[in-house]
């Protein structure tokens, strides 16, 4: 059975993984520093929140326009170019005195190109690791992403005691640059790619084909919407218990990491597939306890259990990969990632809007119930054993 150690012994995967880790750390630091800088300048909660998470909304533009570059003939070169653009964008944010319009413009540009980079990186990942190790590789990246985000915020808070936000942005740019060098020196070029020229027409053509497949539509629905609605629940923790929100956030992070570790490392592909529906139920059901407004220790346990359900993305991503032609893997995974991030932003916006009219506890309960309803209602349409799986040639 493959292990994390065997994956990291693979030079190309190790390079892709280290580069990804550095980029997550850089993104967390830059978001934190930029939000602090914007808050100091404007004292606006809205602009501060947008500066911290606004880049996620630019990912959908990448999915709709140029995501086909993720499946170009030279994915390594494409990834190097895209990470270079990200480096320039982060470095530009470190320039003191930039107008706010320029800063937000840079934020959207970096978010757009980062979404293309995600698609390219995931396409390379699907070619670098054996099919049997794909879920394990994604599990390791998910665990690392969550862990580095937590660590990045902690380190960012310490750095901001001694540096100006522009100085922290310089640190983020350095990390981005190191990540660029790592991927450029460890990952080789891969050639199992489409023959059509990447661009808007090719992106739309592949997206239309993707959404024309009923199995893919159901999988994307389950990857995006239930997840996004539960992220909306998480976005209300501060409003629900302002003085103890940190306990709930920590419980959620711990549950997510444990879920990814267990599902990715200990379960076989068949076991993951069988567990997918139950995990999607676990993702939402514990949040129904918020209707009773129990003590914080009870809600913390509920959040911990529910967050393990985020691991349902692993078997769903495996099924989506099985349904995807080899030449379109990068774009399809880029679309999946961009849609998931966009729905997380939408979930937070929906939750905030409802909480203006209702109480946070009632809103969390309603969002959890909606997530459950979508999961149960769409179950018959989720492909349990894609036909492409039987005929796909082994690598």
Structural summary, described in words:
This protein has 395 residues and is mainly alpha-helical. Helix content is 78%, strand content 0%. The longest helix is centred in the N-terminal third of the chain and has 32 residues. The radius of gyration is 20 Å and the shape is globular. The two termini are 17 Å apart.
Topology:
Layout lengths: L3 H5 L2 H32 L2 H9 L1 H11 L9 H19 L6 H29 L5 H29 L2 H22 L13 H13 L1 H22 L1 H4 L4 H22 L2 H16 L11 H12 L5 H11 L5 H29 L2 H19 L8 H5 L4
Helix pairs in contact: 2-3, 2-6, 2-7, 2-8, 4-6, 4-16, 5-6, 5-8, 6-16, 7-12, 7-15, 10-15, 10-16, 10-17, 12-14, 13-15, 13-17, 16-17
Instruction: Kindly report how far apart the N and C termini lie.
Output: 17 Å
Average pLDDT works out at 82
Q: What percent of the residues sit in helical stretches (DSSP H or I)?
A: over 70%
From the alpha-carbon coordinates, what is the Rg to the nearest angstrom? 20 Å
The biggest beta sheet is recorded as: none
Report the strand count. 0
Order of helices and strands: HHHHHHHHHHHHHHHHHH
Quaternary state of this entry equals single chain
Tell me what portion of residues adopts beta-strand conformation: under 5%
**How many helices in DSSP terms?**
18
Flag low-confidence runs. Answer: 386-395
Structural class: mainly alpha
Q: Assign an overall shape.
A: globular
């Amino acid at each position: 059975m493959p292990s994390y150690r065997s994956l990291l012994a693979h030079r190309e995967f190790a390079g892709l993984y280290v580069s990804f880790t550095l980029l997550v750390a850089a993104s967390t630091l830059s978001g934190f520093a930029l939000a602090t800088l914007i808050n100091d300048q404007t004292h606006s909660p809205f602009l501060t929140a947008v500066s911290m998470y606004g880049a996620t909304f630019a990912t959908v533009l990448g999915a709709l326009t140029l995501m086909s570059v993720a499946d170009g003939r030279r994915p390594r070169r494409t990834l190097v170019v895209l990470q270079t653009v990200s480096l320039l964008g982060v470095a530009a944010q470190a320039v003191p005195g930039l107008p706010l319009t320029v800063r937000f413009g840079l934020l959207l540009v970096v978010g757009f190109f980062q979404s293309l980079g995600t698609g390219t990186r995931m396409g390379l990942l699907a070619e670098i690791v054996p099919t049997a190790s794909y879920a394990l590789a994604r599990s390791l990246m998910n665990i690392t992403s969550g862990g580095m985000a937590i660590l990045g915020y902690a380190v960012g808070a310490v750095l901001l005691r001694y540096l100006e936000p522009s100085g922290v942005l310089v640190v983020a740019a350095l990390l981005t640059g190191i990540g660029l060098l790592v991927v450029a020196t460890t990952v080789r070029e891969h050639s199992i790619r489409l023959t059509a020229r990447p661009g808007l027409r090719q992106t739309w053509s592949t997206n239309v084909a993707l959404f024309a497949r009923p199995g893919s539509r159901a999988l994307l629905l389950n990857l995006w919407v239930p997840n996004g609605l539960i992220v909306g629940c998480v976005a209300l923790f501060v409003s629900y218990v302002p003085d103890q929100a940190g306990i709930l956030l920590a419980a959620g992070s711990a549950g997510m990491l444990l879920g990814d570790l267990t599902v990715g490392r200990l379960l076989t592909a068949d076991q993951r597939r069988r567990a997918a529906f139950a995990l999607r139920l676990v993702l939402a059901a514990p949040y129904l306890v918020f209707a009773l407004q129990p003590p914080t220790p009870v809600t913390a346990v509920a959040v911990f259990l529910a967050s393990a359900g985020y691991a349902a993305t692993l078997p769903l991503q495996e099924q989506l990969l099985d349904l995807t032609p080899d030449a379109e893997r990068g774009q399809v995974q880029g679309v999946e990632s961009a849609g998931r991030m966009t729905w997380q932003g939408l979930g937070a916006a929906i939750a905030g809007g409802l909480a203006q009219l209702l109480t946070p506890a009632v809103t969390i309960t309603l969002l959890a119930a909606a997530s459950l309803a979508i999961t149960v209602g769409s179950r018959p349409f989720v492909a349990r054993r894609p036909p492409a799986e039987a005929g796909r040639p082994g690598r």
